[in-house]
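[Automated response] Your request has been received and processed.

Submitted sequence:
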Amino acid sequence: MTHAMLHRLAPWRTAPRWHVALSGGLDSTVLLHQLATLARTDTFPPLHAIHVHHGLQAAADAWPQHCQRLCDALGVPLTVVRVQVAPGASLEAAARTARYQAFEQALGAGEVLLTGQHRDDQAETLLFRLLRGAGVRGLAAMPEQRALGVGHLVRPLLHISRTQLQAYAQAHHLDWVDDPSNTDTRFARNYLRQDVMPLITGRWPQAAQTLARAASHMAEAQGLLAELAEGDLRAAATPGAFPWLNVPSLELAPLVALSDARQRNALQHWLAGFTRLPDTQHWASWPELRDAAPSATPVWALGDGRLLRAGGRLWWLSELWRAEPQGQVHWPMPAQPLDLPGNGQVRLCGLAPQGRVQVRYRQGGEVMHTPGRGRRDLKRLLNETGLPPFVRGRLPLLFVDGQLTAVANLPAIGGNGVDLRWLPPTNAQRLR
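Generated structure:
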């Protein structure tokens, strides 16, 4: 068991720090004890433990103290993080979300979070997802490693059985806590663990190992699908006409040229960086967006944002794009950059205009004087540029003494020598 774990940890030996997700249960207790013991004779990154307290049951109030005693005995520093679990349909999912948010916030650049999921957990995950009708990505179950914030999540025990962990704990006289909720078979995973898996292993003793191996095969298949998706996306990842937007987008035509299955595969791969992926039923909205009339501006609402079609491209907008800025911002010193509440920053290139300077947003009916064309409606001018509609309500407009003088990042509209540069907010895209 030790050799297998060290083999899987070898690529992470140069990380700045290893964090162990310590629940106090069997799995994480064995993981921490083994690492702390090996660190006495081996060269590891600094070791640190994190205990997340969800506050969902009275029994859990004693677990931070238990974890502290264990860490004190092993000489490992411990951080206890208390989280609030959002109410919802699935308490398990909400607790997991809160837990991993806490882990992500704790990780520094390049640091590694080590968790104690083992082979039996992997088998249960595969079975659970199979019963939910998951595709290849879901049936790959838990990856051995993945990105987590600015660090990495690594599961070094995925090839080790629960029986092996119990044997290690007993041999080293370890104490661990048992979560009372683990026996509540109203939770799907507990039902699989307590009632279903014993029946399966009673008939097929190697079922956990076999199911974990099937998950590994699925992970390999998913890797091949990812390679195919990356090739398909290269053709669609052409630069748009407005690179300053810095909004993820794809050219639609190369995607439409693919088969339906390859379209879904490419989009799943691309969207995975931004949002929770849609289920099978939700994918019915993709053809509606794809096949809408060219003049339409269809929207596909997803878990963490929206996919829009405009100007022959697909655009990903996070939830932060929903609230458009309102009102006006006075600019008393236009020679200096101006921060816009919730909307990035603007600055003027060249000489600052004289007069009362303000930044406003579209309300409708704005007109602008254009050299050689006279007064023109702003809506018509923006239509001529092809600027996607979703940007227009957020686009800063420069007013001098009440007159519309410049439109951010579109100096050709005014043609009067005033160049307003806009840097959209960096958090307008929330990458997962």
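Summary generated for your ticket: Residues 54 and 83 are 5 Å apart (CA to CA). The chain has three domains: 2-221, 237-321, 328-428.
If you did not submit this request, please reply to this message.
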